[in-house]
Amino acid sequence: MANTVIGASIVIDGEISGEEDLIVRGTVKGRITLRENLSVEQGGVVEADIETQNATVSGQVTGNIMASERVEISAGGKMVGDLKAPRILIADGATFKGNVDMDV
Amino acid sequence: MTSGESGVIGRGITIRGNVSGTEPLIIEGAIEGAISLESHLTIESSGKVAAEVEVETLTVNGTLEGNIRARQMVAIHAGASVVGTIAVPRVVIDEGAVFKGSIEMDFELPEGV
Fold first, then answer.
1. Cβ proximity of A10 and B38 under 8 Å
2. What is the rounded average pLDDT of the residues B15-31?
3. pLDDT above 90: residue A2
4. How near does any CA of chain A get to the CA of B19, in Å?
5. Which of A12, A81, B44, B72 makes the best surface tag, with the fewest CB within 10 Å?
6. Is the Cβ pair A26, B21 closer than 8 Å?
7. Integer distance in angstroms from the first to the last C-alpha of chain A?
8. Inter-chain contact A26–B11, Cβ cutoff 8 Å?
9. How far apart are CA A86 and CA A53, in angstroms?
10. Percent of chain A scored above 90 by pLDDT?
11. Residues in Cβ contact with B111 at an 8 Å cutoff, skipping those fewer than 6 apart
12. Is the pLDDT of residue B102 over 90?
């Protein structure tokens, strides 16, 4: 199944919603609402409030993430904002500033 | 994958807002707003776009509503449905395509015409 890939040179200013996996290598500003997995890869910049099932951050996220399952900030990932999810993983080498709320 | 990096907006995805960039983009999902690309845009048969479109080249197999400005070429293939205005030097409309609107090919008129 073809995932959605926001390529490195792509800038989206607005709202993304959907029911399939989303990979961000470019820039998204606004809001992301997904029922599947969001992956912000290295080089990806997201300035948005995010509502998703799973989120993996290897790039930069500014905004709040609310995940129904799991959030992972990988090594090299930078996140500024609040996290709300039942399972949260912050890897060694990740940068994070914000509140964590696992009580969903 | 075609040449170089190519982004895909999958069929389960809806974007409301502005999309811009310099790399090719394939749309299988839905976009409402504006698209500005310095490259090739492909709207696949499942794709639904209601947007102001400004691109280098455009291929439509799906549904497009809006004003289109392409710097090189627009191709509307069989099965596609396009409503709007097109400003471009080269246009191809295949048999089986549906188009409603105006086309303006901005070529240089010969001297004295």
1. no
2. 96
3. no
4. 4
5. B72
6. yes
7. 31
8. no
9. 10
10. 94
11. none
12. yes
